From TrEMBL:
Top-level taxon of the source organism: Eukaryota
InterPro entries per the UniProt record, alphabetical: Euk_RNA-bind_prot (IPR050502), Nucleotide-bd_a/b_plait_sf (IPR012677), RBD_domain_sf (IPR035979), RRM_dom (IPR000504)
Pfam families referenced in this protein's UniProt entry, alphabetically: RRM_1 (PF00076)
Domain RRM: 24-90
GO molecular function terms attached to this record: mRNA binding
Keyword RNA-binding belongs to the record: yes
Name of the molecule in the record: RRM domain-containing protein
Length: 90
């Protein structure tokens, strides 16, 4: 019965939900002011699956303005490195 208790646990490790916990983040800086979350996601999706893409905003004078940087979260380490290599300094 010890083997039966261990089998479901080890099979759960392989489920997509479990794998999705291991995502890889990229800090993206020097963004033009007009770049928003959807633009950032579209750009990085050319290099793999994007789980999240967010531009950081701050409130100034009653309006929200981009701070010129953001974060993108990719599905795999390989996609993360591919995106960084392709988009670095662009």
């Amino acid at each position: 019965s010890a083997n039966k208790a261990e089998t479901p646990r080890s099979s759960r490790v392989e489920t997509p939900r479990r794998r999705s916990c291991h995502r890889f983040g990229i800090f993206v800086c020097n963004l033009p002011w007009q770049v928003d979350d959807s633009w950032l996601e579209e750009l990085f999706s050319e290099h793999g699956d994007v789980f999240d893409a967010r531009v950081v905003y701050e409130r100034r004078g009653g309006t929200w303005r981009s701070r010129g940087f953001g974060f993108v979260t990719m599905a795999t380490e390989e996609e993360t490195y591919d995106a960084v290599y392709a988009l670095n300094k662009q």
